[in-house]
Amino acid sequence: MACRKDKNSANNNNLNPCNQYTPIVFIHGFLASGDTWAGQVMRFTSNGYCADRLYAFDWNTLSQGADNASLLDRFIDSVLQITKASKVNLVGHSAGGGLGYTYLSNNQRAAKVAQYVHIGSNVQSGPAGNGSVPTLNIWSPQDLIVQGGNINGATNVRLDGKDHYEVATCKEAFEAMYEFFTSGKKPKNLDILPENTLSISGKVLTLGENQPRAGADVKIYEIDATTGFRKTTTPLHTLTSDARGQWGPVELNKQTYYEFEVNTRISGDRVVYYYREPFKRSNPLVYLRTLPPANSFVGLLFSGLPNSADQSLLTIFAASQGVSAGRDSLLVNNLHVSTSSLAPPGKNAIAFFLYDGNNNGQSELTPVGLFSQFPFLVGADVYFPTSPRGTISCKLNGRTLNVENKPSASGITIAVFD
Fold first, then answer.
1. Which of 66, 73, 260, 268 has the maximum number of C-beta atoms within 10 A of its C-beta?
2. Could you say which residues of the chain have pLDDT below 70?
3. Class in CATH terms, 7-181
4. CATH class of 198-417
């Protein structure tokens, strides 16, 4: 399960009001993972839900031949067994919405679902479950990936100005879901409420394919926010992922910048260094992605990434919305990366892979690699020398993350903006 159980609440549901809510299962979209829902999970816990009422289903959106509906069915059965609930509420975004409708087209499976939320996904002829499952449909006319619209017989919510990813992650979508699941009750909090004690956990899995990496080492370092350098050579915490790729939980401090070093110890896998903004609240969906095997479909996409002592490889991940030219500002060492050629609105750019694609020691900001063939992914020619040791400054819409210019030969550097 993606969301760890709250041990105190799991023992006796009758003593814990937060466990009286119907469990929610979230399905992510194309090329995404369960951490799509991290912000919404924290909003639900900010409004009285127990952590063990919230689950994210990870699936391989590139494996079209797989029986994903059966995989989802087994996942939902396990949630029902853990929670002792009779039904779940189901939420599907984008391709996850297509999977949601496929799943609910079977009457036996539909009987396990109390309510369904369809977000940023294709217009359907009627409510899910062949019309039997109450359906909330959330869409945006500014979603340029999927052309949404109202569904006859469903509760329809139009969110103007939201991109394809943002329509699922924004607080307005949370508000609509919360009211739908609670028969019109308004949430007390639309923002994520800060906590003093933070419990952090998540998964190690492969990018795009979501295959768990068991036995991976996860080392956590506190870093200097102004330089991105580690404050100590010894990690604060060292953890190992289990058979499902899960790691943690571990207690971390609020208002603190951390680096997560991930080493799968699998031959051919590259070490990955994750830099994150400070955590505000306990988060069970901190995902640490590694590159898939080189011989896989997604692995071929990354075959041209540098592995050099002389240049850094930096990926910037926007976890809550796409980056669009004209609306958003993404600067890396004061270079504007959110240009109309790299990040047009129709791209809905989520992840930027930045490196010296032609090895000329210059930053030309031209597209590199095969990334132009996919939505959400951008490859751009940006040169980061590794000598002398220094800082790469990443700024997204006024927020700053500073990372170290590690050689790409030592691993891949990822800056995550929540």
1. 260
2. 1-16
3. alpha beta
4. mainly beta
